[in-house]
Amino acid sequence: MKYNFDTQLERSGTDSVKYDLRKAYFGNEDVIPLWVADMDFETPDFILNALRNRLEHPVFGYGFRSPDYHKTIVKWMHEQYEWSVKSREISFSPGVVPGLTMAILTFSKPKDKILVQPPVYFPFYISVKDNDRELVYNELLETKDGYRIDFNDLEAKLKTGVKIFIMSSPHNPVGRAWSLDELKRIVNLCEKYDVLILSDEIHADLTFLPRKHIPIASISEEAAQRTITFMAASKTFNIAGLSTAFVVIKHRKMMRTYNQRMDASHLYTGNIMGTIATKSAFDNGNSWRMQMLDYVNGNIDFVEEFLADNMPNVHFHRPEATYLLWLDFRDLGMSQKKLIDILVNKAGVGLNDGTIFNPGGEGFMRLNVACPRAVLQKALEQISKNLP
Ligand SMILES: Cc1ncc(COP(=O)(O)O)c(C=O)c1O
């Protein structure tokens, strides 16, 4: 079946963060919203049908995640990543960020050092700082070929007693899908300094061919035993509002401890619609996913050509994964405040401010290209008309 990604949907009035919080976030409810990381594509029909089917039953009491649900995830891991995961190695979280936070609370103490790689997804900072842990930065290096890990700095930082390394893999916002070599070097260093890896792989299924996502826990037994992996169908199939993620923990004792924490917080139940949607996504979704990635890739081509023709001072490194572009406006030489003012109040486009991703974010804005091309074109034209 051929899917259509050009349909423009009216999402205002659906309690959508991206649409209905524009006034609160940008001070302007008319901006074209290309910020929050969900997609302006319809959730695929097979997921909607699975949800509709469940709605036919009039009771929504407590549910549980069945063996079939776990088998579906096991199969997806095997087919997509050649990663052998057992059902008992899969746990739950009502979202990737809540799961990361639970793991931080469970496997570290107040004041412990936790390392992140900025510029990076900003809730990592909140999960660490608001829980009284110390943030340590291993800033990514920008090269002419894109972002790279500064391994000398990483080792120097890990050596200072870091307990946990939170990875963004693939990386939001710079779009890197880490190579096997990079992952091996990370694991070697984490082994040397006995560091637990929390690997946020929520964008895994959004990796563009010929690049392949490699779950860090899949590369060796050592990696598997010191990693907790967080994944979800939410980004890829546009079901983030169903608050359903899964967590892979190969280390048995660590799994028991994580589950005890989830039970104690009564967070384990989840919601039955999220379970149904995830199962349907992985059981039926590969062809839709490939078509969607193709379309998004076309959008990235479109932005590349548009910038070359109309805004040659704005750049980005082509992402290997994710539908997020890390746009570099530094050549325009204007302050972040001025840049945002032009984008929001003159161009009428709402992007994520690069500075919320912390060091390395000044002069950047994050653009979400998971939208119909006509919307993207309109937004770029409005930006181009209003930039000096
Ligand atoms: C890297 C990353 N992790 C986690 C999330 C959010 O995950 P959840 O909604 O499951 O907490 C996002 C959403 O944008 C993300 O980009």
Structure commentary:
The chain starts with 16 loop residues before the first helix and ends with a helix. The chain has a seven-stranded mixed β-sheet. It has 15 helices and 14 strands. The radius of gyration is 21 Å and the shape is globular. Helix content is 41%, strand content 14%. The chain folds into two domains: 17-44 and 286-386, Alpha-Beta Complex (Aspartate Aminotransferase, domain 1), CATH 3.90.1150.10; 59-283, Type I PLP-dependent aspartate aminotransferase-like (Major domain) (Aspartate Aminotransferase, domain 2), CATH 3.40.640. The protein is of the alpha/beta class and 388 residues long. The chain binds pyridoxal-5'-phosphate (PLP).
Helices and strands in order, then pairings?
Elements: H1 17-20, H2 22-26, E1 32-33, H3 45-55, H4 67-81, E2 90-93, H5 96-107, E3 113-116, H6 123-129, E4 134-137, E5 141-143, E6 146-148, H7 151-158, E7 162-168, H8 180-192, E8 196-200, H9 221-225, E9 227-231, H10 234-237, E10 245-249, H11 252-264, H12 272-284, H13 286-310, E11 324-328, H14 336-347, E12 349-350, E13 352-353, E14 364-368, H15 373-386
Parallel strand pairs: 1-12, 3-4, 3-7, 7-8, 8-9
Antiparallel strand pairs: 2-10, 5-6, 9-10, 11-14, 13-14
Helix pairs in contact: 3-12, 4-12, 5-6, 7-8, 13-15, 14-15
The structure holds pyridoxal-5'-phosphate (PLP).
